[in-house]
Amino acid sequence: MSSPGSAQESAPASRRSKITPERAQELYTAVLDLLRESGYASLTMEGVAARTRCGKSTLYRQWGSKPELVMAALHGTSRTQLSTIDTGSLRGDLFAVAATFDGTDRDTALMNALTHAALQSPELLSAMRETLIAPSVAAIDAMVRRAVERGEVAPDNPAAPYVAAQLLGIMRARPLLLGRHSGEGFLVRFIECAVLPALGLPASPPAPLSLIHHRPATFPLPLFVHLTICRTPRYRHSDEKEGADMADITRRFGWRHLRSAPTAHIRHHRRGRLTHDGPGLSFWYRSLSAALSEVPVNDRELAMAFHARTADFQDVTVQATVTYRISDPAQAAARLDFSVDPDTGVWRGAPLEQIATLLTETAQQHTLDVLARTPLAAALTDGVTSVRAGVATGLAAEPRLPATGIEVVTVRVVAIRPEAEVERALRTPAREQIQQEADRATYERRAVAVERERAIAENELASQIELARREEQLVDQRGTNARREAEEKSVADGIRAEAEAARTVRLARAEAEAARDTGAARAEAQAAWLRAHAEVDAGTLHALAANRLAENLPRIDSLTLSPDVLTGLLATLGKPRAAA
Questions:
Q1: Percentages (nearest 5) of helix, strand, coil residues in the chain
Q2: Do 353 and 207 meet the contact criterion of CB atoms below 8 Å apart?
Q3: Of 266, 273, 268, 261, nearest to 295 (Cα)?
Q4: By the 8 A CB rule, do 49 and 23 touch?
Q5: How far apart are CA 158 and CA 155, in angstroms?
Q6: Under 8 Å CB-to-CB from 423, ≥6 apart: which residues?
Q7: How many Å apart are CA 33 and CA 39, to the nearest integer?
Q8: Beta strands 248-252 and 273-279: pairing type?
Q9: Cα–Cα–Cα angle for 478, 480, 484, nearest 5°?
Q10: What was the pLDDT predicted at 230?
């Protein structure tokens, strides 16, 4: 049965049918913060609702249960992308990875909070691996793979597949072993002392190497026996591509032959006197009486990554690259120890490490000075240019660089990145503004569409009104035409009736006259006929009657008269006429 409080919370929550992405991101951040603070067992939906001021019913309706909410928070929270780190060397990549972790190691605290619950929930364990572990492992493996392709690490190095396990494992184990998280300083020392030596790389920064070729050499001495001495190939430093340009030494019994590359300046002292001095030299010497210095004069890249704080007390990570070269080898050899072992060609000291420390500390000092006077927003927009200019100006004004014979060629600032939470918070106003612009454009488009629909409706209504008016005019015109047609027809019918009547009268009169004339003619003819017959005798009349009868009788083809009939007719005709 729900409590009154939950009923009150569900009232406003029911009116919101969908959680915005920004609101969901806020909920995810609160869930992960509560996990780091109190652990998975103490995490409750009520605590999340109280932290985010959200209705508990909304959380249950959106995610259903606590495990689903935690998995959604793991999947939906953006983290620092290690896959974007590429400084050009494995050492620089690993140091940049160390720079991305703060002193509290929030991911380690989150993993500690979820470990016990994840072992009991396969879905939660899969989400934790997919969100927290797999991206970091894949990014570090990609760094090692690029190092193998560049030749920094041997392809068959057995420690290469375990670099990610070393870094992630020490971050997880140090809080349990020493009660302290793995900060950037500890990770840098761990990388220098444990990871790089396991990969066959020295702890010092990259410096020029000397490759001693694995090839037999014969030296013709007429008084000595031919000796062939083979040295095992050995790299002075880790960068094989740079080592191909450095000097190589061939050993003979009591003698050494040095052949340098054009990018290596060799200084050869014998018994305190400078015997050979210049780049690309090739000469014989005795190791017991020779003092050699090998100064690289090619352009070198120094990648660096360090933390800084802006004027509004926000931590940022700066990634930069300084390109430098040794312009005065004699001065550099006098100020720094560039001496090499005459037998092995290995530097006795770490001169390039000293140069890297000098450049890094100087660049970091000027970077801190620039960013300390720059707010975070300005640092993210124009900070790259200002930091590059400040570092370049500071390095140019550093007196130790020209005194050591070092010339800075160029300074590049790769990126200035804030913390993940700050970066996400800075993105929110821009996203909101973009969304508002999109909503405004949508509303304007809808308003224009409504206005067009209204104009179309008004046009249709005006068209209908005009059509109705035209139809009314058409009806009036049709009535007028019909009335006029009826009147004209009536007049025509009257005229036609009068004409018919007059014609009928005239015809009747003509017929009457004709009948009268005909009757008179007939009467006169009848009278004449009667007068003519009156004067004729009876026999003639009988003959005429018989003739008229014969004309009206059907045609008789043959007539048979018997003697009796003929006798009677003759007797009749023979009788005299009676007196009238």
A1: 60, 15, 25
A2: yes
A3: 266
A4: no
A5: 9
A6: 417
A7: 9
A8: unpaired
A9: 115
A10: 32
Q: How does pLDDT run across 250-306, given as a tens digit for each residue?
A: 887 778 889 888 889 999 999 889 999 999 899 999 888 899 999 999 999 888 888
Comparing C-alpha atoms, which of 45, 35, 102 is closest to residue 422? Answer: 102
Q: Which residues of 107-137 are buried (b: 16+ CB within 10 A; e: fewer)?
A: bbbbbbbbeebbeebeebeebbeebbeebbb
Contact 339, 291 (CB under 8 A): yes
Q: Which long-range contacts (CB under 8 A, 24 or more apart) does 185-188 make?
A: 187/97, 187/98, 187/101, 188/95, 188/98
**Tokens standing for residue 487:** 């009147």
* pLDDT reported for residue 92: 85
DSSP symbols for 445-492: HHHHHHHHHHHHHHHHHHHHHHHHHHHHHHHHHHHHHHHHHHHHHHHH
| Amino acid code (one letter) for 375 | P
Give me 93's structure tokens.
Answer: 């990549």
Tens of pLDDT, residue by residue over 138-150, are 888 889 999 888 8
Query: What is the reported pLDDT for 63?
Result: 78
Residue linked to tokens 């070092």: 406
Q: Is the pLDDT of residue 408 over 60?
A: yes
Which H helix or E strand runs over 301? strand 300-309
Which residues, 6+ apart, have CB-to-CB distance to 538 below 8 Å?
577
Nearest residue to 347 (alpha-carbon basis) of 332, 359, 357, 360: 332
Question: Can you give the pTM of this predicted structure?
Answer: 0.41
pLDDT at 181 over 70: no
In this structure, the dihedral spanned by the alpha carbons of residues 191, 193, 194 and 197, taken in order and rounded to 10 degrees, is 100
Contact 46, 56 (CB under 8 A): yes
Residue 235 has pLDDT above 50, yes or no: no
Place of tokens 């629909």: 453
What contacts 322, CB < 8 A, 6 or more positions away?
301, 302, 304, 359, 363, 391, 395, 408, 410, 411, 412
Percent of the chain at pLDDT above 90?
15
